[in-house]
Design a protein that fits this description.
Blueprint (H helix, E strand, L loop, with lengths): L1 H28 L3 H6 L11 H30 L6 H27 L1 H6 L19 H30 L1
Helix pairs in contact: 1-3, 3-4, 4-6
Length: about 170
């Protein structure tokens, strides 16, 4: 099962990076139709605002960085094997939670802030759909990040207890 998880993480991570490179390439060559589509706008005859493009690339990079961080830490968790080293588990879970929080931040900003920044001064206000929903499906990433941070604290306390017990033995 660990092999299947590693394969899925590797393929998904590679696809995310490839998609990021594709979007970056489209921006460089000036083909903005896919960019407008990502922001849920109909194709436009003009380029999105520079601020929107910069923010979009930044938050997409934050999201992909979060995915890769989470996948790498999950790989290292699977590598720990049967040695239940509480400190190592706590550290990996904390970093995994950080990666999930990055995923939430990147995706949330990409879906809510970037479309507004892209259309600033470019799209007529009647065509702009401003939607703000604080609890979309990506909130799951944030909830899992908090759970992983809590588990990390619990494992850190378990490591401290284990150290105390070992001192008595």
């Amino acid at each position: 099962m660990a092999l299947v998880a590693r394969i899925l993480m590797g393929v998904t991570g590679a696809l995310m990076v490839a998609y990021m490179v594709l979007i970056f390439s489209l921006v460089i060559i000036g083909d903005y139709s896919e960019i407008w589509d990502l922001a849920d706008f109909p194709p436009q005859d003009f380029a999105p605002s520079a601020l929107g493009i910069v923010l979009g690339l930044f938050f997409a990079a934050v999201f992909v960085g979060g995915v890769l961080t989470t996948f790498w830490q999950s790989h290292l968790l699977l590598k720990l094997g049967r040695d239940h080293l509480f400190r190592a588990l706590a550290h990996r879970l904390r970093l995994c939670g950080g990666g999930l929080a990055m995923m939430w931040l990147g995706l949330y900003a990409f879906m809510n802030v970037v479309p507004l920044a892209m259309s600033m001064g470019r799209v007529a206000p009647e065509f702009m759909e401003i939607q703000w929903a604080p609890f979309e499906i990506e909130t799951v990433f944030l909830v899992l990040a908090v759970v992983m941070a809590a588990l990390s604290e619990t494992l850190t306390r378990a490591a401290e207890i284990e150290d105390e017990n070992n001192q008595f033995l």
